Amino acid sequence: MEKLTNKELELKGVIINKLRYGSTSYGLGGTVLIKFVLPNSLSSNYVLEQDELPNELPPTKLKNGDHVGIRNSKSKYGKDYEFKGIVYKIEKSEITISTDLNTYFPPLEHEFLTFSIDKLNPNDQETEKSVEESLEILKSIQNSRSTDNLYSAPAASFKPISKTLDQTQMDTVNSILATPDEASEIKGLPGTGKTTTMIELVLQLIKNGNKVLICSKSQVSLDSILDKLFEFKKECPSLNPTAIGQPSSIYSPRLSNYFLDNKILNDEYSYQVIRESRKEIDSLFYNLIFIKEEEKENAKNKINQLLEELVKTEKSFANQVLKDSNVILTSTKELSSPYLKDLKVDYIITDSSDSVYCIPVQNLTTFNHQTINSKNITTLTKNYRNNHIISLMNSSSNNSTGDKNNDQPPLTMIDTSGCDMEENQDVPNDEECISNEGEVTIIQKHLENLIKSGVDQKDIGIITLSNCQIKLLKLKLSSQYPDVEVGTPKQFEGREIEIIFISTVRSNNSPHKIRNLEEINRMVQFSITRSKKQCIFIGNSDTFSLNPQLDLLIQHIRDNGLYKSVL
């Protein structure tokens, strides 16, 4: 990595290069929040390079919670960091880094410099420490139900809040409500209504006066759950959720007021107390650059003292917000938050990838039969998300019943074999930095037809593994189709899109030497489950014939979907 240039590292998605200092503020827990912005947002004289996206950060593998190092753009990757921190929030044209109280980053000294933000990989010791901290927090979360409530099962039936539940989903919710002292699990293929069932379960639990903690590895998935909960605010007026962390950019506008930080600052009293404290700290920080060197140590000690007092004040406000909430949502990266320590809840709900974090906790509702020895198991089979053929493709049996009335060809493959649409290596000898302009051209033509036929841009998504392909797609499409979403599979976790394009990128001549065909297969299988009506798969059938699963998929599309060759 050290041998690559900043431009090549940015193409790989492991750094964001040439950013300017934007502002400094303070987050909960005494953290310092330093914002970096695009150069052209501060200066109208900045000239964009040909391959730079206007008013938008380049595609990146950075996400909320990642460890990063900030350095001068002229220095080498991995060296001479100004400071290290954690990604607090990424927005379209800016990124905010959270760091500790001891970070000294005076604005006037850095106003005209450009910076690179490097993704760091925490070592095994740091990862182990993070997991141990999360487990300790979960061990400290107390069960708030009395002994009488713990062993007295609710009534054998309930009145559903959602009007769309089928009988299996209602039976699932009823079974869990009737066995509060047992771990339960809900199994099912993507699109079979697991989240819908979970939402109903949460609503029923809080209607009965319970407090619920929901945990997920994916922030996007967590935000999707929060968004769906609010669809039932009228039916369940007691609903009072609080999410810990920062919302993903997809849901940010309508959900941000329900995150812990903003709930505290939206309260008039707590806002006034915190604002006055931060004004004093800001003033001391600003004056650091003007005072004598021998006086700086005393000034920094004063700042740290004020920050420690502010941390205590904020924690008391946070504890009150969480005490008043009946649904708390957190990602696994936020599990070690001190605000969760000694929290009292009645139920914990976790998705399949994170139940290992919840082993120490009793009265657990989970979706993972491999980790928890559950007696109460339900499997959902009816598919509500996907078109019928898409459902069959993702089912190991033929009991999945999708939307059979959809007249669109649900699975479409556009085969680029023999069409001189080979991949391009943007960084020599690096399989991660690959793009395919031919696939971009195909997508452009199909987008034009879809938009002309009345499809809303917001109902279209493009999924690809390659960071370079994301950048190329955005450069070619963003001016004409700004609302078409382009991203990696992680960006689409827990979500449903009407029409999905899959840009596989990989296409080369015989003998088709490609190392990550299995990863491409996983992306394709995942992407198919994100589409509700139509999935358009673009790739080279000759290249993919080397992978048995991809070869089977292509044959399935030939038999049941719509197969086209670019020839």
From TrEMBL:
Domain of life, source organism: Eukaryota
Enzyme Commission number: 3.6.4.12
Residue ranges of coiled coil: 289-316
Pfam families: AAA_11, AAA_12, SMUBP-2_HCS1_1B
Entry keyword set: ATP-binding, Coiled coil, Cytoplasm, Helicase, Hydrolase, Nucleotide-binding, Nucleus
Compartmental location: Cytoplasm; Nucleus
One Gene Ontology term of the molecular function aspect: hydrolase activity
Entries under PANTHER family matching the protein: DNA-BINDING PROTEIN SMUBP-2, DNA2/NAM7 HELICASE FAMILY MEMBER
Name this protein carries in UniProt: DNA helicase
